[in-house]
Amino acid sequence: MSKPQRFSNFRMLLNQPALLLTILFIFAILIIFIILPLINVFRLGFTGPDGGFSAETFIRMVSDPGYQKTFWNTMKLGGLVACISTFVGYIFAFAITRTEMPGKRFFRGIATLPIISPPFVLSLSIIFLFGRMGLITNKLLNIDSFDVYGLGSLVAVQSVSFFPVAFLTLTGILESIDDSVEDAAYNIGASRWHIFRTVTLPLSLPGIGSAMLLVFIQSLEDFSNPAVIAGNYSTLSVEAYRVITGMYDMQGGTILAIVLLLPTLTAFAVQRYWISRKSFVTVTGKPTQKRRKLHEKHIVWPLFGACSLVSAVVILLYGTVLAGAFVKTWGVNNTFTLEHFKYVFSMGWDPVKNSIILAAVSAPISGLLGMAIAYLIVRQKFFGKKIMEFSSILTFAIPGTVLGIGYIFTFNHEPLLLTGTAVILVAAFTFRNMPVGIEAGTTTLLQIDRSIEEASTISGAGAGTTFRRVTLPLLRQAFFSGLVYSFVKAMTAVSAIIFLISPKWNLSTARIFALFESSQYSGAAAYIVIMIVIILAAIALINLLVNLLFKPKYLKRATTK
Amino acid sequence: MFTKSMRMCALLLALMMVVAALAGCGSSGSGSENGDTDNAKKEPAYKELTVYSALPETELPFYFNAFQQDTGIKVNYVRLSAGEMLTRVKAEGANPNASLMYGGSSDTYIAAAADGLLEPYTSPELSNVPDEYKDPDGNWSPFYVGALAFACNKDWFEKNKLEYPKTWDDLLKPEFKGQVSMAHPSTSGTSFSILATIVQMMGEDKAWDYLSKLNQNVRQYTKAGAAPPMEVALGEAAIALTFAHDGLKPANEGYPIEVVFPEDGTGYEVGAIALIKNGKAEEQENAKLFVDWVLSQRGQECFIESKSNRLPINVNAKVSDGLKKISDINVIAYDAVWSGENRERLVEDFKAKIDNAGSLKE
After folding, report:
1. How many Å separate Cα B271 from the centre of its chain?
2. Which one-letter DSSP state was computed for residue B112?
């Protein structure tokens, strides 16, 4: 960017004080809640015993062949899971948005189910089903030496856990691709396959890129699944945690976490560069007809079959958890009982209440902030835009344990004394969960032609009005994804909060972990079932609110009829 | 019209949510301070205590409720693993959010004391505790002991018509191939105790020899110290090397687990409690009171009620029925200080010589 151009951008900003203030405000909170804790983490990793800079620990950790192997293990896992999850997510998203497949609502439900429970529950049901005493391996197939621990199970569990992220991102993208593009191709005689290959797929590439990026990063920083089911297959996030809490080596563990940042940031950079070279404008504002959905049997039924298969796996895994909540002792005494639910509703309700409050507070903040940042990044020009983009999405790539430690170190002194309060948890949730909303928002915005907003500005609306009345409704689906994701992740976070919860603000996931530790699997299962119900209700509510608020009028009329 | 008013309602609702959220954020920082001082005004004697605890969630209410009954002091707590607790106290540094560390092996407390995180306190109740368990510097106090044991899956042994292992050498039997579960000494205090016990019993050379043979029978070195008994409970392994009270935890839930103490001697852990340095000033007296209470006969006998299977350290306290007293078990003269000092070296050696975890070998 040349100097005069930069100057003129700046002058344009000065003419819009609200916009300028928003930008400054966002920068301020990004610095306080993301950059500062990160700097503290780096300082922790690179401070010698004398208090000065030292790369000694870094060199010690990086040159260790054991940890090098761990690094490649982590990459391999992330790559496999990213491919499988995105593939499955795409099938679901395509089938639901593009075809007249029966049971769409059901499949949509299935595709969001796995993100709404603490993921390590899936690991446990896999052990129950496929372990040495497993229902399937032992009771059904009579094998008692099957080894459930290792890469295979880990890939399976993570793929099931994370394909919803891909699904949510891709649904947003596929829904915002203008129908008329595909219809036009069809009308001039292109085959369905040809349209898919030359129109739909290329247009959804940025979504696929985003989805893979998001899943890859999630897999890398996932802590609870590898901790339970990886066996001897070590991964960086678990290794970082075990170095910190097992060997009391906070510096070494922090270094491992910093090493973990490297691939996630690379992935991020590659994806940005790749997207920026293509144009994906399809929402033009010109009138469109209602979408003509695919109905050909040879397309619909294979998709239906694939979705059913995946759904069956998901149902099996969750069914095991559900069944476990109603039996006396999971795996041993299978008599029906409601005592675990009685316990949760009487003695153990506080943590659940806390989780709901904090999630409900952080989700709208994180959702709106995410959309605002996405809008600024894609639509506005200002100095430091790249920095804003980069830092706002950074938290997604930081393992929870490290974010937690960074937060304690940063917010345990005046004037930022936040430890022990709810604010520190809300902040952790907000900034950690924001990137999904930003991702969904930017990829959607990249597809919306700028002229729609320009029309609004030309007619005299300010940047704020345009954002609220034009951009936000177009971002509806992305906003919804962002909200749902934030809420759910806040309800189910484990590693990020372990150092942040306080006696006043204990959370239900910490309680579930504790129950697992004392072998009360059924009690834990009861908590999980209750949390799933709460989250489902919340998603329905969010859906309702988002549609009421932001659905464009012409669509509303069509549906209310 | 209808949709428009609906829309307004929804907008208002959303706005209210955001405002409430912001207000909640703004006030809970400053508001909680006000709240605290208000409470202090109403009740001159401070009646609260904040604790980090590494004891299982299920046991804690028994102790805290009984303490509240006796003293009127309400205990607020966060439950963490021992390593997390230490990390957190370290990270909070000069501004800790709790006054006490409660539970976890003495080695955690030795490490904490070395970092200057603890406030020394010598409870009068310590006079009822055998000297060998105490910290000579008085930085922390012991409040239970637990011996290492073999936790066995009853069903597996019945099905395979085998006898429980009675000695450490029994664990090497070929029929237990892939059936022994222990945690990794680098992540688990329990497992490090096992390693240190074996080294102290056999001497270093023989210990590595023994461990490499045992390695053939070990299914996997789990990350969490809590995992081995869980694996045995679920039939993933037949024998877990663990502390007796952890091994018996799944038995409380009805899982088929029994523990055997090795006849040729075993190590033990000392569970500890300590005041955190710079803890909340208004809670200091309550914290000392709690330490006294935990060490008292009354506090110690709560182990029976809570089904913890922990062995009391106060010589006057009664033990739950069926539980072996530490004096009935063949325990070695376990040197916790030596273990703590050699921890890093032993763990590194273990990784280099024994560990079959693929990632760490080579």
Report:
1. 7
2. H
Q: Kindly report the average pLDDT of chain A as a whole number.
A: 82
From the CA of A405, how many Å to the nearest CA of chain B? 7
Sort out which chain A residues have CB atoms less than 8 A from B111's CB and list them: 248
Question: What's the pLDDT tens digit per position in A414-450?
Answer: 778 887 788 999 999 999 888 878 877 887 888 778 8
- Identify the top-confidence range among B8-12, B108-112, B204-208: B204-208
Q: Which residues from chain A sit within 8 angstroms of residue B22, using beta carbons? A: 365
Give residues 49 to 108 of A whose Cβ lies within 8 Å of B.
65-66, 69-70, 73
Domains and CATH numbers, chain B: 48-145+270-323 (3.40.190.10), 146-268+332-353 (3.40.190.10)
Picking from B359, B360, B362 by the largest number of A CB atoms within 10 A of its own CB, the best residue to mutate is B359
* Helix H or strand E segment including B146: strand B141-153
CA distances from A559 to A134, A551, B360 (A): 48, 10, 59
Nearest chain B Cα distance for residue A248, angstroms: 7
**Domains in chain A with CATH codes:** 15-560 (1.10.3720.10)
Which residues of chain A have a CB within 8 Å of the CB of B351? 66
Q: Which residues of B touch A227 (CB under 8 A)?
A: 223-224
pLDDT digits over A272-316, tens only?
A: 666 545 545 555 555 555 556 777 788 888 899 999 999 999 999
State the DSSP code for B240.
Answer: E
The verdict on a CB contact (< 8 Å) between A361 and B20 is yes
pLDDT at position A120 is 65
A231 and B220 within 8 Å at the Cβ level: the answer is yes
Can you tell me the mean pLDDT for A127-153?
75
| DSSP E strand stretches across A325-430 | 327-329, 333-336
Residue closest to A122 by CA, chosen among A53, A239, A222, A206: A222
Q: What pLDDT, in 10s, does the model give residues A187-240?
A: 888 888 888 888 888 888 878 887 888 788 888 888 888 877 877 788 888 888
Chain B contact present for A194, CB below 8 A: no
Structure confidence at residue B187 as a pLDDT band (50, 70, 90): confident
Contact A520 B223 (CB under 8 A): no
At B230 the pLDDT is: 84
Residue whose C-alpha is closest to residue B55's, from B243, B208, B279, B231: B243
pTM of the model: 0.76
| A415 prior amide bond cis, ω within 30 | yes
How far off is chain A from B298, nearest CA to CA, in Å? 24
